[in-house]
Each structure stands twice: as structure tokens, then as C-alpha cells.
Give the backbone structure.
Amino acid sequence: MPATTIIGIDLAGPSNAADTAMVVARASGTSLEVLEATIGHSDTAILAYARRLGPAPCVFALDAPLSYNDGGGDRPGDKHLRRAIIDRGLASGSVMPPTMNRMVYLTLRGVALARGLLAVTDGSARIVEVHPGAAMALRNAPVDAVRGYAKDPAARHRLLAWLPTQGIRGLHPALAQTSHQVASVAAALAGWGWDRNRSVFCWAAAPPLHPFDFAC
């Protein structure tokens, strides 16, 4: 059976392809080998990549809300994940409702991209919504580094040193240049865990309003 390709994507808003990072990795039984790590992806570029994959087994782990609650506010999974990350030492605002202020732009892109991925792969793509910061914190990454990696290069380097303890291989120090690249690796980690039924948090899909699992 072919190895599963795990694609971790840290999405930015619809007009911000420059900060959209993607990691492509190959899963084995005990490790996840990073093959490509790039930044600056539009939806068109991501969909073109997915189309080239064809029917090969793949998981797209998207760091963006892929649904929103009827009437707005938190989805049930948002509430439960927020409690979990607060217990681990992260700020409550690390999990935001999909319709909150500027967050809605990220939700818009996530919903549209997930729909596009299913279309270009004839429904064969496996898609999961992930939260990179929670995926690291709930696996006992250094919490101060998770709290600070958006702005602090030293925190990003600490997380890149920690990620191999989780089975991630092929990381390069240059990934510490932006938080988006570190987040894409953590998104792939969450997607790999989900693919193996080893998530540290998983809120099951509830179609039709919430068609994808939300996992870390």
C-alpha cells in the first residue's frame, strides 16, 4: 500500500497568499518525513498541487475553521478545545469562534478551499481541520515557546528542536524564519496523528453543518 502523504497548511486570509505555508510529508509507521516546506500559496496553487496528487492516499490538514456555527459563536468543538488549552497554559483567545471579527475571513477561505480540494480530487482527499498551537501544547511542547512562537524566533527554534521528538524528520532551521512555516509543520503533525487515530484532541464531524473532524 502506498505511503500516505500528509499536507499541513497554515492558511492566512483570502488576500494573504504570501503568509500561507505548506508542508508536504510522507508518513511511515514511526515517522513523518518532510519532503517540501514552502510559503506563498494561493488557493489556485494549492488546488493545482492537490490535482497532481491524483488518487494517491493523502490527508490535508488545514489550519483554518472549515465550518461555522448556525447563529454564530463557538462550535461545540471550539469550546472543548479552549478548555483543554487553558488547562495546558495557553490563552483562551488561542481558540476563536469562526465568525469572530476578522476571523471570519479565515473561515471563508477555509470553507472554500476544503470544497475545492474535494472537487479537484473527486472526493478522494481526506480533510481535517487542525489547530497547530494546540497540537503542540497538548503533546507537551514547551508551553512558553508555543505562546511566543508567533513573534519570537528563539521560540520557533525551540519548537523545531522539539518536533523531532514527535517523529518529525527532515526539518531545516530556516523554517524558523516565520511562525507560519512552523505552524504548517505542526498542522502536518496533527494530520498525521489523526490519520493514525492518535489525536490528542478530536471533535468528530457532524454533517451537514460541520463536515470535517477537528483534531490536534
In short: The radius of gyration is 16 Å.
